[in-house]
Design brief:
It is a single chain. By secondary structure, the protein is an alpha/beta fold. The chain has one domain: Rossmann fold. The strands form 2 sheets. Strands 6-7-8-3-9-10 form a 6-stranded mixed β-sheet, with helices on both faces. Strands 2-1-4-5 form a 4-stranded antiparallel β-sheet, covered by helices on one side. Strand 7, helix 7 and strand 8 form a beta-alpha-beta unit. The longest helix is centred in the C-terminal third of the chain and has 16 residues. The radius of gyration is 17 Å and the shape is globular. The mean pLDDT is 92.
Amino acid sequence: MSRELLRLDDLHAWYGESHILHGVNLVVNEGEVVTLLGRNGAGRTTTMRAIVGMTGARKGSIKIRGEEAIKLAPHKVARLGLGYCPEERGIFASLSAEENLMLPPTVGPGGMGIDEIYTMFPNLKERAASPGTRLSGGEQQMLAVARILRTGARLLLLDEISEGLAPVIVQKLAAMILTLKAKGYTIVLVEQNFRFAAPLADRFYVMEHGRIVKHFAQGELQANMGMLQEYLGV
């Protein structure tokens, strides 16, 4: 059986006085791809940010490899082997692609070397000396993901990585996720693009109003399409 890597129990989170998460419960097992589905404002990104300690007040339980992380600062959460790729990507415009890649510190053993990263992302090798501002949206997204692979993180939180990208780039990102899964990485996806996320995920959690309202496995996807139409309009 797969080992439990991430568990959220009755997780609440706030931004200032705004209560966003209302008791989120979910489990992610080692080696899985799990997708959080829901409309904008459902609480998916806030769930990601709460896991890494980037919201305001939190209560409940966040366990990473069995270690309670609810009170840890973000840099200490990262050192539990977690990498977060936010929707805004955070590429430094004044640095070259390779300088961006080398910037984050190591958080765990076994991070990908530069050669391995360039094999997975040949576009980045070609653009290694290009400033961040000169990279296309797709290249910036590849760089944002590659940057956390170098750190040694094995649990990846990827927020809307396909948003606004050309279909050919989206296909490359899907292939990347399958490659990472085959290498033993564990991935949590927040995605608005259902067509992108659906074939990749082992399991799905549907969020509405800061709560998990439905949970099902890949094999149950077709049986839940009516429910997804209701919640997501897919």
